[in-house]
Here is the input.
Amino acid sequence: MLRASTLLLLLLLSNLVTANELVSLKEKYKRPDSIPFPEDNPYSAVKAALGKMLFFDPRLSKYQNLSCASCHNPSFGWEGALPRSAGSENTLLDRHNPTSLNMAWGTSFFWDGRAKTLEEQALGPIQSDVEMGMQLELLEMRLKNIDGYKKLFKKVFNGDVSANNIAKAIATFERTVVSGLSSFNKWVDGDEAAISEDAKKGFIIFNKKGRCADCHSGWDFTDNEFHDIGLETDDVGRYKIDSSSPKNMYAFKTPGLRNINQRSPYSIETLPGIILHYITGGIKRPSLSDKMHPLLLNKQEIFEITEFLETLQGHDKPMSLPTLPL
Ligand code: HEC
Ligand code: HEC
Here is the structure.
């Protein structure tokens, strides 16, 4: 009897935070004031505008039927509408579409981190047979035959259409795609009424008892690291590109959680479904992250975490579509 009550007390304490602790917790999630751009590809408004056209232009794919935005669709939090997207020949892709939101803060790209920069990343899907299936020389030729593009590349790069410049423009546009101010951030900035009491409790569980912030940390809720969270899968993840550590087996990049409710369905379909997975602690295997532990969360706490996650939706202005050059 005594032991049960001690356990209960410990459980209650594990979710208590002092006012000071709450202030410093909130501090960790403040939105950054500016977007970082790399020195070798600085921001300019015309470059971002050109990148936006390229991002939305299906002429970048072999059959002119698929753009980056087909799979990174602003209406679905810059993901696809289905758990798996199809490429330009209707082949279903092996992996779930990640969001292309808040990429400016990324330190490596793809689920396994195989691209080091956004510039490098952008040329991947264009050339991939199962995605846009386009040869770079062919792409350069096709865009050079579009007068509007020729003029824009001249204006932006003082040069010609080239794969390198295409990648630079797309990456610049992608860096400008940042989730807007959310109710959560209004609360972080001092507006107590911005989110519900349940969401506030959810934020504390997320950081304490739920241990979610061990991986989903920082303003975009990702440590940009790779973890095996113990999901059933045949995909070896990061191990394929780096077999130096057995921990890379089944390890994937922690996705950011901004605008998460707009990004459904996920690898596991619903938010409560995902939390139920974390409660189990995942499949026990040597590669399982040391940060995965079975959790004791009741129904109400699952609800509170979900309420909190929903406050991460940015109040973004609707994304306008670019007029494509002819
Ligand atoms: C047919 C669907 C599809 C198309 C078209 C597509 N992508 Fe992707 N994108 C994906 C998938 C799936 C992944 C994850 C692949 C992986 O990790 O192996 C991905 C990954 C990414 C990532 C990495 C995100 C992260 O968190 O690391 C970025 C950025 C991205 N795509 C941008 C683009 C750009 C730019 C284009 C156009 C040039 C594009 N995508 C075209 C489906 C697509
Ligand atoms: C050990 C690191 C780790 C911990 C701890 C962790 N996550 Fe994750 N999370 C990940 C990784 C990695 C993925 C991507 C897995 C995949 O799709 O294969 C992920 C995916 C997600 C997704 C789906 C996002 C998407 O775009 O598909 C949500 C939502 C999520 N986690 C919420 C949580 C919550 C809530 C907790 C705490 C209860 C938590 N995570 C704890 C690493 C972690």
